[in-house]
Design brief:
Strand order of the largest sheet: 1-2-3
Number of helices: 15
CATH superfamily of the largest domain: Intergrase catalytic core
CATH topology of the largest domain: hpI Integrase, Chain A
Order of helices and strands: HHHHHHHEEEHHHEEHHHHH
Structural class: mainly alpha
Radius of gyration: 26 Å
Number of strands: 5
Low-confidence stretches: 1-14, 27-34
CATH architecture of the largest domain: Orthogonal Bundle
Shape: extended
Helix content: 40-55%
Largest sheet: 3 strands, antiparallel
CATH class of the largest domain: Mainly Alpha
Amino acid sequence: MCRDGGAWSNATGLGPVALGLREFKSLSLHQHFLTERQELESVEKFLASVEEQSKSLSFHEMIELKSRIHKVYVKRFKQKSGEPKYGSVNKGFTELELGHFLRNVPNDKFRLIFKYQAHLGLRIGEVTKLHVGNIDFEKRELMIQSEKRRKTDSMLIPSELFKETLSFISQNENQIKQATGYLFFKDHGSHNKEPFIDSNYVRKVFRITIQKSNLEAVYGYSDETMRKGRPRALHRLTTHSLRHYAITCFSKATNGNVVLASRFARHSNPSITMCYISKDKTELYDNIDHAFNQEELLARIERIKNVK
């Protein structure tokens, strides 16, 4: 590295590019305990520091720093544009897969949790915190605060799901009372400090059920998160796949009305909803055959000949 012998570099043992990158990675623009003024001062101080130290960098070092900062930006923010990482892979359950999966769920509590996700598209953090106070039993209506948008929405609970909910509450009335009204109370012996069931525990039960149902499928590996020194496996079916299934079903039921599907999904932008609607390859291929069958192709060729 050229001209990196300043006090700034020597004090840390890092070159200016590495140190600048480390500061950039650790910078948080959303520290809730800071006031807006303090946030602004923190950012300005950081920028001033980078500007000052960049004076000692060579042209090639500046290019390297710019490249690394861009990589951090892409990793942290680029995927938030609504474009899924998994491309055209169908992340949602099919009807057959869901039926097989639900039959292998260990008990009624987890089955009801997964059904709320599959019927209403609730996120895992939303369904685990469901409270009896969120349910209007006369209107069969659920009030839910969206985990992402932090807004309260109302949703109609399907009649069959509502009946199962009433039955579950009746059978587990004492446990729900002990959990201060949380519908999905934590299991006995759980280390979760909250009275409701832990999301990670639900994910664990989901993964075990998937394996039991012979639905385990890995479509890639992520080097962003390492587990025991190995890249993390990317599973096709996760708890979020139940939400994919719900949104896809709703979209089909409304003849592909993306605006309605977006409201059902509680997305801020319909373009996000499009990433959730699964593509049915069988249906696509059948339509291709129907649209371009042999007789139709021959008729088109004949029409073209007549034009000539």
